[in-house]
Every structure is written in structure tokens, then in C-alpha cells.
Amino acid sequence: METLWSDFLNSEWHDWKGSGYSEDRLGQEKWQTYYLNQWQLKAQVPADDETVGVMRQFRSRLHDMSVRCAAGATLAAEDVDELNRMLDLGPVKRKAKLEGGELGIGLTPVREDWHQVMAEVAASFLRSLIDGEGNRIRICDNPDCRWVFYDDTRNRTKKYCDDKMCGNLMKVRRFRAKKKQEQNKAGRKIPSRTSESAESHK
């Protein structure tokens, strides 16, 4: 499942097919426009270089937290401090709302900039941990991909970001590796007793 925070992390893109090519899309105007539209957020495009630098630092810290959560660890005190620091960048106003005859409370961002966006990313990450479980965070099992995602399946056994892409690719790789191993074993000829005897008389 794609989330606001995982989409932010995956702006650091790696070629899942294994070419070794990677691309940091965070500073690209095209990606920034896509991200804001995708999650209905507002900020200036393109983001200035200083802001992009701050976002990269936050992305690195958030990625480290995600990897540790995926491994079964919990957030440390310094992680919580970092998330609180990011949340402070994006103040919100509480607003009553009525949807489908039910009364609720909505949170409206006060600012419309990339600092507000980072605060929303931090809040999204926290909601995933609070409403779900940290061990549902996954790093794609394709080592060339490294895509971060949230496993919302019932059995919690999702290994790949996309079963049709990375899942099938890894299946083909395992099949080829097995075939190669079988060929290597078949290629190792064991000398017969007859040949050994002939060799000993030379």
C-alpha cells in the first residue's frame, strides 16, 4: 500500500531490473508537482535548493526509521524528537466537519509550503505506526529495488512492492540460478574405475 510517507521516501528511486541506475527525484520539478497533486498538498514548485536539502536530510532519517521498523525494532527517543521537530514545522487548525450526517474534527494546515508537507509526511508515518504496526513496514525483497511500502494484507506476508514486477523478476532469477546450479553439477564428470585404471598404467 502506498502512503504519503512511503511515496516521499521512494523519491529516491532505484532501477528494480538491476541495471544499477538510481535517481533522486526529490529535487525534480516534475516529481514535486506529481507528489503535491497526488496527495492534495500545496507548496511552491520548484522547491528552492535549501529546502530540498532539508527534505533530503529528513528523508534519510525517515528511511533509517523505516528500515529499523521493518526489522522489528521500535522507534528510539531521538526518532520521536526528530518527528516532533518536523511536526512543529506544520501547524494546523482544528475545524468541525459534518460528513454523511456524522460530526467530526478535521485538521487544516496553516501554511502552504514544503515545511508543511514534511510535517504531513511525519504525521502520516506516525499514523501508520499508531493505527497499524511497525512490523508491517516492508522493504522490497528485490535487492535492486529497495522500495519501501506498508503491508496492509491480512496475512502480513507481502514481500515485494509489486508481485507482477519485482515478484516475477525474482522468480525468474531463482529459476535461472537453480538451472545454472544443476548444469554445474552435471558438468562435473566423475572418473570411472576403468579410466582410473588406465591412467594408473600410463
List the helices and strands and how they pair.
Blueprint: H1 4-9, E1 12-14, E2 22-24, H2 29-38, H3 49-70, H4 77-88, E3 92-99, E4 102-109, H5 114-131, E5 137-139, E6 148-150, H6 163-187, H7 193-200
Antiparallel strand pairs: 1-2, 3-4, 5-6
Contiguous helical run count: 7
**Text of the CATH class of the largest domain:** Mainly Alpha
Give a count of the beta strands, DSSP E runs of length 2 or more. Answer: 6
Low-confidence stretches: 195-202
- Would you identify the CATH H-level superfamily of the largest domain? Jann2411-like domain
Question: Beta-sheet strand percentage?
Answer: 5-15%
Helix content estimate: 40-55%
Compute the number of structural domains: 2
Order of helices and strands: HEEHHHEEHEEHH
Mean pLDDT, as a whole number? 87
CATH architecture classification of the largest domain: Orthogonal Bundle
Largest sheet: 2 strands, antiparallel
CATH fold node name of the largest domain: Jann2411-like fold
Distance between the termini: 70 Å
The gross shape turns out to be elongated
